Amino acid sequence: MNECDTIHDKYGKCHEECSEYNKEYSCVKRQQQRATRIRTEEALDFFKSRGVEVGWYGYGVLNINNVFAFSPKSYKWKRIGKNKWYYSRGPKDFYERFYKR
To answer: Which of 77, 97, 95 is nearest to 87 (CA)?
Structure first.
């Protein structure tokens, strides 16, 4: 049973409304992916403009000077080799408060 059938059973929506729901859901998902891609590109540009060596640590996570891992999607960071993730307000906040130390 797919999601459309579940919605139809639960709310009694007709098939046309379910297809509209699926179109809207896929549109929202594309918007989220686009926002994530834009955040990642902005973070890359920010760090490169400051002369920081940037690479990829994993899927969607940036490796900064082989010392830090920074996630542009959630603005979290950690030291490479440690498991504790910390919050920041964005790439600028991370750079000023933690990287420049």
So the answer is: 77
